[in-house]
Amino acid sequence: MEWKKASSLDEYEKLVIRMNTPRVVIDNAVCASSTLVKVDSARKQGFLLEAVQVLADLNLSINKAYVSSDGRWFMDVFHVTDQNGEKLKNESLLSYIERTLSATTSSAASDGDVGLTVLELTGSDRPGLLSEVFAVLADLRCDVVEAKVWTHNGRIASRTRVRDGDSGEPIEDSVKIDRIEARLRNVLKGDHDVRSSAAVGDGATHPERRLHQMMFADRDYERAAAAETGPSVSVQNWVERGYSVVNVLCRDRRKLLFDIVCTLTDMEYVIFHATLDTDVKQARMEFYIRHKDGSPISSEPERQRVIQCLQAAIERRASEGVRLELCAHDRHGLLSDVTRVFRENGLSVTRAEVSTTGDSAKNVFYVTDAAGHPADPESIEAVRQRIGELGSLRVNHDSQLACRAEKEEAAAGLFYLGSLILCTTDEILKTRENRIGKTKVE
C-alpha cells in the first residue's frame, strides 16, 4: 500500500512538472523577415526575464515582442533575427534556444564563475580610473579572465573575474582578498567618494543583470539634468484595470528589452502585458505592470523614480565614443599596459568588455577624450602605434569601420588593434552548451 501511494505521488509530481514546463515553438514560416519564438508557460515571477536573457546572451535582435498574461499563464512571442538581420537557420542554434527556454531554471546565471574570484566595483568615474584598477590587479598578481565595465551619469560599475596569477587558481587566501579590496577602495576613493565600494561578489547573478543592480544601488539614475534629455519614458495609471502603463520610445539596439525587463523585475514590478515594435532606428514599447501585491504605482515620486530608473537602464549600455577591438595573446598585465596607453594619450574608457579563451584575449573598449567628447583621430593613431610597440599585439592597419554613438548621429572611426577574431553565434553556442541543465522530465 505504501509503495503504491509513493508511486502514485511520483506520477502526480511528474504530471505537475509537465504541466508547468514551458512549451516552446520556433517557426520560420510565419514571418518573412524574422524567426518567431513562442513560449507558453505558467506565470512565474522572473520567467520573462529568463526568456529574454537567453535571446540577449546569443546577441539576437528582438524586432517585435508580445507578452500576455491569461490567468495563471503567460504567452510570450518574440520575432528575432541574427547579427546580420537574417532569420535563424542554424539548426544547433534553434535546438539550443528550444532546450534552454524549455528548462525550468535559467541555464546561464553564473556565466561560468565557478573556479574564479568575482570582484565588484562601483564609484565615481574619472579619466584614467580603469587604468589604475587594472594596474592594482596586475601588481597584486591577479589575472583578469573577464571584465565588464559600464559608466553612466558620472558613475562607474565593473564586474571582474580574476584568478591568482601565480597558481592559476581562485583567490581563496583571505589576507590577499582583504589586500585587494583595500587597494581598490583606495583607488575608488581618490575623489573622497563615500558611495564607492570594492568587494568580492558571489557570481550567482547574470553578469549584466548584476551590473544593472550595482548601478541602481549606486543611484546612477539621479541626474542633475532634466529628464527630457534622456529616452522618452512615460508612466500612467489605468485605474479601471488596476495597471500602471509604461511607454518607452528610444533608439533601438540589441539587448534593449533585456535592460528594461531586468530593471522592472529588480524593482519588484510584475509585467502582465507588453508589446515591442521596432523600425530601422526606433523602438516603441508598452508595459502593463503592478507591484507584487497587485497594486499599481501609487504616488508621483514613485512614478518619477520609475521613469528615471528606466532612462538610466537604457543609457548604461549606450556606447559613446570610438570602439576599439583588441585580440592578442593573453599575458599577465596586458590590460594594465593597454589602458595605460589610453590614459597617456588622453583617452577615457566609457565601456569595456574583456574576455579570454585559453591563451587568446578579446577586448572591446569604447573611448572618448577626457572631457567625454569624441576622441581626436591623432590620439587614436598614437594609441594604435603604441599598442603595436607592446610586442605581443599585431595591428591590422586595414580594418576600419563605423561605430554608431547613442547620442550622436555622426559616426566614429573603428580601429582593430591586434588580430581581430569575430565572435560568431556558433562560438557562443560552444561556450554555453556545457552550461545547459541536462535534467529532463521523463
From TrEMBL:
InterPro entries: ACR1-12, ACT-like_dom_sf, ACT_dom. Residues 118-199, 323-400 form the ACT domain. The keyword Repeat applies. SUPFAM superfamilies: ACT-like (SSF55021). Keywords: Repeat. Coiled coil: none annotated. The keyword Cell wall biogenesis/degradation does not apply. Transmembrane segments: none annotated. Binds amino acids. This is ACT domain-containing protein ACR. It comes from Acorus calamus (Sweet flag). The lineage of its organism: Eukaryota, Viridiplantae, Streptophyta, Embryophyta, Tracheophyta.
